[in-house]
Structure formats: C-alpha cells, structure tokens
Amino acid sequence: MGAALAVREAPAPHPVERGWQTDRTRAPHATKIVVAGGFGVGKTTFVGSVSEITPLRTEAAMTAAAETLDDLTATPRKTTTTVAMDFGRITLDADLVLYLFGTPGQKRFWFMWDDLVRGAIGAVVMADTRRLAECFPALDYFETSGLPYIVALNHFEGSARHEPEAVREALALPRQVPLVTMDARQRIAVVDTLLILVGRALDATPG
C-alpha cells in the first residue's frame, strides 16, 4: 500500500448572523434537549463538541471511594465525573436554538433526572457497546415517561464494531426509535445526531 494521503482540514466556518440577532423584534425558538446514558459514555464530550458557549460542567474529581462504586474497566483514564449536569447551547437553524443538558450517569445521581428532563422535547441516549447494559436505565426512563428519544452508539477506540441491527436487538429497541453510530468527539457527527432527534421529536408531536 502507498503512503497515506494527507488530509486537508476544512476551513473554520465564518460566523453567520441569525435573523434573531439582527432583528431585535424577533426571538429564536429555544428548545431543551437531554443527553443521557451511563457513566463515562461520552455525554460531557458530546455537549462540549458542539456548544457555541463554554460548556458549564459540574465535574468532581474521582475519589478512591467513587472508584469502588463506579466501574472504570472501560474508562481507566477517567479522572472526573459529572455530579449535577453539563450544559451547552447550539444554534441549529436560523431561528432554532438547542439547549443541551447532560445528565449524570451514576445511579446515585438519578434523583436529579426528573428536574433535568422537565420541559425537554427529546433525549439522546448514549451507549457504549462494551457496556450496553449501562444505558438500560435511561431507555427505561424515557420509555416510561413517553419523551421522544434516539440512541447514539458512541465509538471508542479499541471497541468492537457491531451491526446496528444486532445492537437494536440487544437493546430491545422499538423499530420507530432511531439508532445512530457516531463519535462524540466530532462536531458534525453530534450535529447530525441532534438533527435526527429533532426530526424524531417533530414526528412524535401530535398534528
């Protein structure tokens, strides 16, 4: 095989003036999105990859006591954990602003979910194929609450690739729930995931 081709990085996009920024009589439509999933699945990275503002992160250092509660097998380099929420903002369309709320993943913080989810139009449930069972509580929560959601398989280096249909079967995921494979470190992948969720939420809205 020949030498690898050099990859040209795409130029940074020029700032775009939104209608609601230039016309003070208009306001953007603000929408709340929840990003949920198990411990260390990439929720903080997901929010940070697309946020137009410096993400608000409520992280705490992992302590020896926490290491006895949280399974670090798949994330041995993880040194912090979200203890309340991650918060970010992205403008998806001329008049559509999404506010992203990342939930804490550990069971001991689940009591916060009801408050974080209140007012949201939909949720992204992030999953790691090495630890699929850790997203089960989030799936159960949104199935029970009736909030529209999608599942995003976050790709980690060294993790095995599985056919989407095999993952859907393992999760017992209803056919109407979108399942996407993505990399939370890549902005375009996160944007595409959010667009799919917005479409799902619109489809679930009574006409």
TrEMBL record:
InterPro entries: Gliding_Motility_GTPase, Gpn, P-loop_NTPase
Molecular function GO labels: ATP binding; GTP binding; hydrolase activity
Top-level taxon of origin: Bacteria
Keywords of the record: ATP-binding, GTP-binding, Hydrolase, Nucleotide-binding
Pfam families (UniProt xref): ATP_bind_1
Family: Belongs to the GPN-loop GTPase family.
Designated name of the protein: ATP-binding protein
Species, as recorded: Streptomyces albireticuli
Lineage start: Bacteria, Bacillati, Actinomycetota, Actinomycetes, Kitasatosporales
